[in-house]
């Protein structure tokens, strides 16, 4: 990776695929990081419907490497492969539950589990509302084993003027949760109550 730190970005089938795309764009724009991309089959459909038919191709072009969702033997499925952490954005309830209870039948959930066992940061942008008790229990279980649950909540106090600004803020916040010291700020920077910003 030519000295760049690897970061895994998983995109699952929940609504909000544009957030995952923006996270990849921000990371790919930084010379210190190399994005390893895993997109679930359901996410491929969501990307097409919510972002555009070329969204998956754009993502793959930005990534340092992309992997098939079914490729559980890929390098990022091993704890010996060095990466700085992982973001799943958006994170469906199905993916959350699989991670929480160790259902590791695909590369996305397997790579997430590896981050937990290696004590690396795993950020899950869980996208669902309203939540029933089963959802909350899955979030609790994931938190107890080391994941960071970060629902994609707009920072209304920043008075965003467009959907793009909302997406930028959520994506930047997710990246900040990885605690990456070399990541430079995107074109739009955010600051305000609560200490959010990049």
UniProtKB/TrEMBL annotation:
Organism: Bradyrhizobium ottawaense
Keyword Cell membrane: no
NCBIfam families in alphabetical order: PRK06029.1, ubiX_pad
Keyword field: Flavoprotein, FMN, Prenyltransferase, Transferase
Keyword 4Fe-4S on entry: no
Annotated catalysed reactions: dimethylallyl phosphate + FMNH2 = prenylated FMNH2 + phosphate
One annotated GO molecular function: flavin prenyltransferase activity
Gene3D superfamilies reported in the protein's UniProt record: Flavin prenyltransferase-like
InterPro entries, alphabetized: Flavin_trans-like, Flavoprotein, UbiX-like
Role according to the record: Flavin prenyltransferase that catalyzes the synthesis of the prenylated FMN cofactor (prenyl-FMN) for 4-hydroxy-3-polyprenylbenzoic acid decarboxylase UbiD. The prenyltransferase is metal-independent and links a dimethylallyl moiety from dimethylallyl monophosphate (DMAP) to the flavin N5 and C6 atoms of FMN.
Domain Flavoprotein span(s) in chain numbering: 7-170
UniProt-annotated binding residues for dimethylallyl phosphate: 157, 173
Phylogenetic classification of the source organism: Bacteria, Pseudomonadati, Pseudomonadota, Alphaproteobacteria, Hyphomicrobiales
Superkingdom of the source species: Bacteria
Enzyme class: transferase
Residues that coordinate or bind FMN: 13-15, 40, 92-95, 127
Enzyme Commission no: 2.5.1.129
Record-given protein name: Flavin prenyltransferase UbiX
Protein family membership: Belongs to the UbiX/PAD1 family.
């Amino acid at each position: 990776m030519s000295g760049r730190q690897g970061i895994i970005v998983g995109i699952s089938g929940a609504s909000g695929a544009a957030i995952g795309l923006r996270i990849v764009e921000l990371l790919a724009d930084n010379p210190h990081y190399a994005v390893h991309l895993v997109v679930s089959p359901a996410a491929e459909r969501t990307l097409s419907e919510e972002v555009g038919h070329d969204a998956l191709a754009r993502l793959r072009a930005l990534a340092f490497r992309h992997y098939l969702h079914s490729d559980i033997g890929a390098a990022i499925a091993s704890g010996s492969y060095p990466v700085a952490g992982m973001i799943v954005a958006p994170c469906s309830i199905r993916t959350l539950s699989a991670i929480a209870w160790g259902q590791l039948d695909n590369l996305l959930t397997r790579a997430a589990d590896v981050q937990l066992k290696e004590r690396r940061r795993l950020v899950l942008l869980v996208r669902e509302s309203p939540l029933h008790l089963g959802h909350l229990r899955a979030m609790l279980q994931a938190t107890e084993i080391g994941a960071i649950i970060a629902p994609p909540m707009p920072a209304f106090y920043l008075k965003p003027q467009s959907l793009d600004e909302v997406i930028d803020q959520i994506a930047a916040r997710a990246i900040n949760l990885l605690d990456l010291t070399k990541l430079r700020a995107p074109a739009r920077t955010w600051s305000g109550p609560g200490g959010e910003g990049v």
